[in-house]
Each structure stands twice: as C-alpha cells, then as structure tokens.
Amino acid sequence: MNSLTVRALLVRGMLAGVAAGLLAFGLAYLIGEPGMNAGIAYEDAHTHEHGMELVSRALQSTAGLATAVLVFGTAVGGITALAFCFALGRIGRFGARATAALVAAGAFATVYLVPFLKYPANPPGANDPATIGKRTTLYFLMIALTVLLALAAVLLGRRLAGRWGNWNATLAAATAFLVMIAVAMAFLPAVNETPKDFPATALWQFRLASLGIQALLWSTFGAVFGYLAERVLEPKPATDAVPANAERTAAAAH
Amino acid sequence: MAHSAIAPAPLSPPAVLKLPIRAILPWAAFFGLLMLVLLYFVGAEQGATSLLPGAGVHEWVHDGRHLLGFPCH
Hints:
heterodimer, A: 254 residues, mainly alpha, 2 domains, 8 helices, 81% helix, B: mainly alpha, elongated
C-alpha cells in the first residue's frame, strides 16, 4: 500500500510538472524569446563564421523550447514528488498541501534561485564558448552544493527543534544555511565574460525572464501537486459527506 | 482519575502521516536516476560533454537551455 502511494505521488508529480511546464513554456515564448533573439543578433554581428543552421530559429523558439521546458518540468516534478515523499511528516506538522508548497519552494530556491545568484542565466553571445566546460562544472557544482547544504540545514533544524522550539530552530538552521552559502559563493570562482558592448538591457531582461519562467514553473508545480497529493493522501475532506451519510443510513436501516 | 488521564488525548493533534523510507527508496533510486538523465539531456548534453555525436540535441533544446538557466555555449 505504501509503495503504491509513492507510485501514485510520483505519477502526480510528473503530471503536475507537465502542467507547470506548459505554463512556463507559454511565458518563456512571450517574455524569453525577445532576449534570445537580441543575444543571437549580437552573436551574428560579432562572429564571422556563419555555419549551417541545424535547427531553424522558428523551430528552436517553439517546438524545441516546448520540448526542453516540458521535459525539464516532468523530470523536476518527479524528483520533487520523491523529495515530498521523504519530507511528508518529517519536517514538522504540515499537511499534504503545505508540505508540497514548502518542498516546491525549497526546490526552486536550491535548484535554481541560489545558484542563479552566483551563476545567472545568460543569453547567447554573452559568454566565451571556449569556457563551456568550466561554466558547466561550476553551475552543476553550485546546484549540488546548495541542495546538500539545504538538506543539512533541514536535518539541523529537526535536531534543534526539540531543544529550542520550532521557530528558533528554523531561524538557526536558515542562518546556518545562508552563512554556508555565502562562504561557498565567496570561494567559488566568478564568471564574468559578458563582452563590453553586449546590450545591457537585453542581458537584464533575459535574466529577469529566466527568473520569471522558473518562478512560474515551480509555483504552478507546488500548487497543482499539492492539490493532487492531498487527494491521494487525505481523501476524506472531499468525499467524507457522501460515504459517511451512506454508512449511517445503512446502519439505521439495519 | 480515569477522566483526567483520558482528557489530554483529544487535545494533541493527530499523528502526521509518514511514508516509510523503505517504500520510497526503490522508486527514488530508479526514477530519480531516470529523471536526472532527462535533466542531463535538457541541460548539458552536447555542451561540455557529449554522449551522442553531433549537435542535434543541443540545437533542439537550445532556447530552453538558455532560458532555464543552464550554461549553453
């Protein structure tokens, strides 16, 4: 039964991820593509090699973008649903919906927001293609580090809660997390490759768009998955009235 | 006396449901890994590392990779 519950939650996490991905794709197409095009225009004006296009811009900005965002939504939805299974009942007295909201917010912060503060999203043309290896390593290292530090902070908070109470334990764990993140950010190498004449407005709008897309994806996921998870785990509130009455009627009839 | 022993019980909130770790682990191990592979293909394949030849995957997910915050090229 419990294993089936995990499976049911995993499937709903992936479905919520698809829903979140659809909305995020819509927003990405509307507010993200202008920044993409500005970056590509800069790139085209500054490089002399014009290789053959493998995938046209029209496909990249529609079907390609949709594929990427939907696969991303499905995958992070599944992983976050599994994290939710671990978190449920173990991070405090929260119900299914509140736990889903907290896990989604935590995942958004650790997988995207905190790494973004150190290594923000960049449009095409804003980086040196030769450093892709270094930048990829640093970005994934930053994500892994943030997730691990967040897990450590949650365990620390749980440990302190018995002695200090939930509020103080949460404050202490959050402070410890922020201090460790600040230390990590101070020691990890910076990536500042944006060419001097890269349009600053395009860069700023692109990064804001990226933040908005991810925020929409995660908040939609949290809301939809919370609703679906509650229906799996706490089916009573929605269906209580009918079966309870039916039972009582049946009992009275006997 | 019997009443005073029973009275506090309804005041304490009901136990929160926990899923046993044993039930979660097999799903987490298999599907967690599968999801990470999907994320790798969206976020990094044919950038710093390549499992498949060419640049088709990179070009197809190009816009999403940039906008989701991954280093692209």
